[in-house]
Each structure stands twice: as C-alpha cells, then as structure tokens.
Design a protein that fits this description.
63% helix; single chain; globular; 20 helices
Amino acid sequence: MLIIGFFFIFFSKVKTTDKNVTSRISVRPFLSFLFLILLLYLATFRSQSVGTDYSMYNGFFFMTNQQLKAIYIENGYLLIYSIARWVNNFYIVPFISFLLFFVGIYRFSKEVELSTEVLLGFLVCSYLYCSSFNTIRQMSAIGIVFFALSLYISDKILPKHRWLNIMLYVSIVYIASQFHASAWIALLLPFIEYIPISSTLVFWGGVLTTIGFFTKFINNVIPRLVILFPHYLTKHNGIDSAFFVDQGSKGIVEFLPILIQFIFLFLICYYARRFIRTNKFISSGYLVYLLLFIGGGNASIIRVQAYLLPFIIFFYGKYFQNDSESILHLKSSLVKFIIILFFAFYFIFRLFRNISGVVPFTLG
C-alpha cells in the first residue's frame, strides 16, 4: 500500500490552470478509483483488533441509543448506529465513517487544486489513513470540518456575502459536533489565514515547541483551559484526569520526526517563498499542527491537533505538485525525494512501533 502511495505521488498527472506547470506521466482516474475502493474496503472490513479503540465501537453496536447517550455518544453516531442495527450489519458504521472523512478532505483538495492521485498518495504515506482507524467519530467530524473549510475559502461560494459564508461555516461545524463534540474547536481554523508565516516564525516556533515538548509548561496550562469545556470534565471524571495532565511521550525518538518536519518547513519558507505566498492557508495550518507538539503528547492537545492533521497532505501534496525553487542549491526534485524518503522511514517506524494499533492487519 505504501508503494502504491509513492507511485501515485511521483507519477501523477498534475491538473492545473497554471500553464507554466509541467504535466507528469498520467495515472488514469480508473486506477485512482480502484485504489480508493481498496482503502474503503480495508477500512470497512478490518477485524476488531485493528485500531486501538475499534473493538469498543463494535461493542456500541449491541447497545441501545439510550445507553450510548449515557456515555456521551453524539447524535450523529446514534443515527449511524440506528441505520447499522436496522440493516443488522455493523460494517455500516466504519463504511459511513470513512466516507464522511474522505469526502471532506477530497472536497478541500479540489478547492486547493490538489490532484486526486497526490491526495491518495499522501493520505497513505503520511500515515493519516492508518490514523483514521482510530477515533472514527472524530475522523468523521474532521471530514465534515474540512468540507466546511472548502466552502469557506472558496471564491465561488458566497464570495460577496462574508457574513453568510461565516454562518454557513458555523452551521456545518455544528453538524460536525454532532459526530464529535470536539469539532467546536474548528471555529478557530479560519483565523489560520491571518498568521504571518515566515522562516523566522517557523524557527522560533520550533524552539518553543522543543522547550514545551520536554517540559510540563503546557500540562500546567491545560487544566485552566478545560474549564471552558464542562462536557469533557464530566466525561473524563474531573480536571485531574490523565486525559488533561498526562505528559505523553517525551523521548528524543518521538521528537526527532517533529524536528525534521520543522526543518523542512523552515527551508521551504526560506527558499520557496513564492510557494508559501500562493499556499498561505495550508502552510499556516501545517505550522500550527507542528506547534501543537508543544504539548508533548498530551491527550487533550492531540484531540485539537487532529483537526490540523490533513494539512500535512495538502502542504506536501501541493509542494510536490508545483515546480518549486531549489533549496540549499539542491534541485527541487532532489528535495522532494528526500522528503518522501523521510515519510517512508517515518511510516515504517510507526508501523514497527504499532502506532494506532494497525499491526497485524487482518480482515474479519
């Protein structure tokens, strides 16, 4: 699957309105469709052991909606489980969940003019596809949020009616919150476009993230912030819950991939300024995603950070798709090869450590 992802990235045909962009070897849309069907099939028919919390979601199938309400399952999933029970098939739940997730990021990719081949390639290579096997309620909400973002940044949808555009965005975020309550944090995402991203900001952001990752600074702040979300205080049994105060992973092994990504972003900001200017929103979104590692693996920060995960796909996808400037006297093609090599090793590293509980992968 990883090899197929690389193939799609390197040999995809760039479809763009920019006449200066050189088209690459075409991968037929039919192959993209087949790959998507494969991803949908694996996400739907995996066994209960694939994913750290997937067996829990299977258990929900045998509970009543009243029982699910008592453990704070949102209305959107009450509806999905009702449909699954009606047809007497649990696979309806992961099937609809993956569709909600993918349709949202697909709609956003079309808005930022990212080819479907590159989208699918980086969906796999970035490990986001494997991550989607967990917290499927939140992944569904993320898909809906990015669908909302695609409409919000569009110059075709209500471009002259700013307040109507904002109301539409808030309305769709409300729908997302019916699949996972944390979706309300997405109300802050439109403000990303106002971040003055630069290599200097990335450098100091990397320094602060390094300090925060190895200290308790953010863990001391979180309990003061979660008071604003009484729902989570009740759900996780108070402000002293490990969900809010646990430091998570703090080792250099966990931090090294983050540092490398900061270096990539710094170099691209410094040498490929035209790319950053023309892709400011997704570049800023990726920066905020990296900055949230300042929490050092804090579970509540990870919940917030999840809404920025797709920016990895869009940032590097657009960078691969565009003819960019050389970096450190290296041709852009070589830089892109180094980046994809990093993601290959990072993917294998996470598989080896069984991040997201996807090993061994079995159907069931």
